[in-house]
Amino acid sequence: MSTQLMLLRHAKSDWHSGAGTDHARPLNDRGRRAAPKMGRFMLQQHLLPDVIACSTATRTRETCQALLNVWSQDIPVEYVDEIYDATLEQLIETVTPRLAEGTRLLVIGHNPGMEQLLHYLVPTDAHPALARGYPTCTLAQIALAQPALQAGTGRLLRLEFVKQLNFAA
Questions:
Q1: Distance between CA 117 and CA 21 in Å, rounded?
Q2: Bridge partners, residue 13, by sequence
């Protein structure tokens, strides 16, 4: 099995929650429905990660918990401060040591960093939907030739938008 990196942008957050900071902003109702839907899809498609690296922001933690609730599996989660509001360079620096040969790592984070990392790893013509941006609760599955993040070396296996998922729950 090759090394795989899965990038999941957090589900839709509640801009009107009254949270005191951006870091504390929770999911909204749409996000609370979308995260388990993506989790069910990942389960049905046999896309469960070996390990999860998740931003410490409330909305990413809630997204992660919704996935774990659906999966009912003991998947190790590391909550990583550096994923919150990370630049491309910070994400590369944070994610690289967490990759290992033959593992599937799921990173749950934020834009613009997640989209920048996707475009860094995968040629922009790899999928027509790459030009549409990276909406909330979008999953990218990338095969890596080696457990290192180098420009243009990833192969996009799938790009799934939660809004477009149609499957039996």
A1: 25
A2: 27
Given a contact cutoff of 8 angstroms between Cβ atoms, the answer to whether 54 and 64 are in contact is yes
- Reported as a single tens digit per residue, the pLDDT across 141-162 is 999 988 889 999 999 999 999 9
Match 């922009």 to its residue by tokens: 124
Is-contact 109 83, C-beta < 8 A? Answer: yes
Q: How far apart are CA 108 and CA 136, in angstroms?
A: 11
Evaluate if pTM is beyond 0.85: yes
